[in-house]
Amino acid sequence: MALKIMILGVNGFIGSALTEAILRNRDWEVYGMDLADNKLGDLPRNERFHFVEGDITINKEWVEYHVKKCDVIVPLVAIANPAQYVTHPLRVFELDFEANLTVVRQCVKYGKRLIFPSTSEVYGMSPDSVLDEQSSPLVYGPINKQRWIYACSKQMLDRVIYAYGVRDNLDYTLFRPFNFIGPNLDNPEEPKEGSSRVFTQFLSNVLYRKPIKLVDGGGQKRSFTYIDDAIECLLIILENQDRRASQGIFNIGNPGNCISIRDLAERTIRIAQEFPVLRENARATQILDVSAGEYYGKYYQDIQVRVPNIEAARRTLGWQPKTDMDTAMRRTIDYYVRQEGFGSRAAALLAGG
Ligand code: UDP
């Protein structure tokens, strides 16, 4: 029988890409809820996709009913943007922790398989140069650095899920995304600075001819992972052949794409010039140094290097990432510039002064 999968936050960056891949490559049914449908295109027309617009914190009966009805539950609803950890820490706790805890408990109650998004952020300022699911310490700053409320919320859920696995034999998989990038992560046409994760933010700066801002010199490093590679891994996890992913924790990341934020800025400017609509803007884009305090405020604290060990995913799931950094960036930019009317909002704003 075809798998029935429930995806909460189905219109998000991961949810929408995962749904598309499932409907294209598998015969599974998807039951999805989200606040909006703007990233879903015409997917809701597919007869194997049952989409409902709603809020998981309000439409609680729909959620519980579908936990009961489905085989696998993928709760992707969360605030996952560092700018918001420092401005709305309690919202992060309420949504990322509290709302998800309810769903986790329902999975235990109805004996359902749970695929849960942990985060590379759980490692925090771990001293390990390569981050390992089984052995790396998880290290956070003091309480007055509110950034860590996200990592802490996620870590606590990881621990709760793990404990349900030990006590009640909950069938779960925790996956830890390492800076996924690709179409629809954030909207580069959003003019408000600080509303996006770093690559989309830089793209947006190019589009609006604003200087790219490097926080504290841009020496920090991240391992950027192209969304298609990540989705391939998630499909293997969902398939769960021979229960290979059951009760496992997997980093999903691309250690080959570990680059500094300064390098990312330079690449963005270089690669954007390959696209006629961005060429002039990219040539004119400057790079500016700002302090973390100026950019994020006093509640922020950064992570210097984040490189995943992906041996577990390689060995257990037979997965490894394929997309190099420049290709990932090129594909993402290519997607955006193909959108109808791309750049017109920015052009109008620039023309209007
Ligand atoms: N960053 C930056 N300029 C920006 C936005 C972000 O220098 O305009 C830095 C930020 O301080 C962090 C890195 O880029 O070190 C990645 O930030 P992102 O928001 O993508 O998320 P993170 O990887 O920290 O979860």
Quick structural overview:
By secondary structure, the chain is α/β, with parallel strands linked by helices. 43% of the residues lie in helices and 15% in strands.
Notes on the structure:
This protein is α/β, with parallel strands linked by helices. It has a domain at 4-185 and 225-255 and 306-323: Rossmann fold (3-Layer(aba) Sandwich), CATH 3.40.50.720. It is built from 13 helices and 13 strands. The protein has helices at 13-25, 60-69, 82-87, 89-110, 148-168, 198-207, 227-239, 261-272, 276-284, 292-296, 311-317, 325-338, 344-352, and strands at residues 4-8, 29-34, 49-53, 72-75, 113-117, 172-177, 180-181, 212-215, 221-223, 225-226, 248-252, 258-260, 287-290. The protein has a 7-stranded parallel β-sheet with strand order 3-2-1-4-5-6-11, with helices on both faces. Strands 7-10 form a two-stranded parallel ribbon. α8 (261-272) crosses α12. The longest helix is centred in the N-terminal third of the chain and has 22 residues, at 89-110. The radius of gyration is 20 Å and the shape is globular. The N and C termini lie far apart (59 Å). Residues 82, 121, 179, 197-198, 201, 213-215, 218, 220, 222, 261, 302-303 line the site of uridine-5'-diphosphate.
User: Could you give me the name of the CATH homologous superfamily of the domain at 4-185 and 225-255 and 306-323?
Assistant: NAD(P)-binding Rossmann-like Domain
CATH C-level class of the domain at 4-185 and 225-255 and 306-323: Alpha Beta
Number of strands: 13
Shape: globular
* Stretches with pLDDT under 50, minimum 5 residues: none
Averaged pLDDT, please? 97
How do the strands line up in the largest sheet?
A: 3-2-1-4-5-6-11
Percentage of residues assigned to helices: 40-55%
Determine Rg (CA atoms, Å).
Answer: 20 Å
Strand-pairing-aware structural class: alpha/beta
Distance between the termini: 59 Å
Q: In this structure, how is the largest beta sheet organized?
A: 7 strands, parallel
As for the CATH topology of the domain at 4-185 and 225-255 and 306-323, it is Rossmann fold
